[in-house]
Design goal:
By secondary structure, the chain is an alpha/beta fold. Helix content is 42%, strand content 16%. The chain has an 8-stranded mixed β-sheet with strand order 1-2-4-3-5-6-7-8, with helices on both faces.
Length: 323
């Protein structure tokens, strides 16, 4: 899989009580005395995958990861209540204070890139540097690209898109695609919710890789992930990710002097490349790396390779800056 670090296990894990009845799962790996780095997973609702620990040299980094509200090992599972972008940002800050970290590096992919940027805009004094993968700016055009029939992804994968919306076709056009799915996730019976979650996740998986061969039985191996990913992504998209239009680009000047690397697959169909390009034009310190023959998924070997090289380079840069 190109340049990637060996499998490691956390040296510590725990549940952290955050606000409004939520508890989030937190784990630490690597070198406790190394460069602290917070990994922010995608979705919303995807949860942590063990793969993320392999993006960092475990001798150089103190690797921190957590399952965002409602997914992975965090509880209550798949809950939309008190689950907003603001809540997640407050959880990030609570984790930083809980671990006694003054400044840390951020690495976020997809929705995790959104959180990394928002956190850095909100608290730039706590951020050493940023590495992003598959940038998502949460603008209306970015939501439409992923979810709408006239969006970019549906135009490239029309047959998969038709399978995606099959479960709600009798609700259209009276209700929007997002509202139709949302109604199922909130009010539908268990079987219909499972069908909708399967369709949602199959759509995303099929457009995440250059040559995806995902089958329905593959999702059956992790039904919990499918349930939280579909419900929480729909919840956030319905509420426009709880972010003002163009908020990130309008506030990116607050990242002045924070070094960053922006990694994006040329053929990313989940988050269009224009996200990363527009960000790089506004954020002078953010170096854009377009990965040829790569799509969205962090498991893409070319994306893995780019992330590991970026964290290696960032560790070297931060060490040299200390001297």
């Amino acid at each position: 899989m190109g340049h990637i670090y060996p499998v490691i296990k956390p040296f510590a894990s725990q549940m952290i009580s955050v606000s409004n009845g939520h508890d989030v799962y937190l784990e630490q790996s690597g070198n406790l005395k190394g460069i602290p780095v917070l990994f922010l997973h995608g979705g919303p609702g995807a949860g942590l995958s063990p793969l993320y620990r392999r993006f960092f040299d475990p001798n150089l980094f103190h690797i921190i990861g957590f399952d965002q509200r409602g997914c992975g090992r965090s509880t209550p599972f798949a809950s939309m209540q008190n689950n907003t972008t603001e809540d997640l940002l407050e959880d990030i800050e609570q984790i930083r204070q809980h671990l006694g970290i003054n400044k840390w590096m951020l690495l976020g992919g997809s929705w995790g890139s959104t959180l990394a940027l928002l956190n850095a805009i909100r608290r730039p004094q706590t951020v050493l540097s940023i590495v992003l993968r598959g940038v998502f700016l949460a603008r209306q055009q970015d939501l439409d690209w992923f979810i709408q029939g006239d969006g970019g992804a549906a135009q490239v994968f029309p047959e998969h898109y038709q399978e995606f919306i099959d479960v709600i076709k009798d609700k259209l056009p009276e209700k929007s695609i997002v509202d139709s799915f949302y109604n199922i996730f909130v009010n539908g019976d268990e079987l219909t919710r499972a069908h909708a979650a399967k369709n949602w996740c199959m759509w995303e998986e099929r457009i995440s890789l250059m040559n995806s061969s995902v089958q329905e039985q593959d999702l059956c191996q992790n039904l919990n992930r499918a349930a939280s990913l579909a419900a929480l992504e729909c919840h956030y998209i319905k509420h426009k990710c709880f972010i003002e239009e163009d908020y990130i680009l309008n506030n990116i000047h607050k990242l002045k002097n924070i070094p960053g690397t922006i990694i994006h697959g040329r053929y990313d169909m989940v988050c269009k490349l224009e996200n990363a390009y527009a960000l790089s034009k506004k954020w002078r310190e953010g170096q854009l790396l377009i990965v040829p023959e790569a799509a969205h998924s962090a498991s893409d070997p070319n994306i893995c390779d780019a992330i590991c090289h970026a964290t290696d380079a960032m560790a070297k840069f931060l060490k040299e800056r200390e001297q």
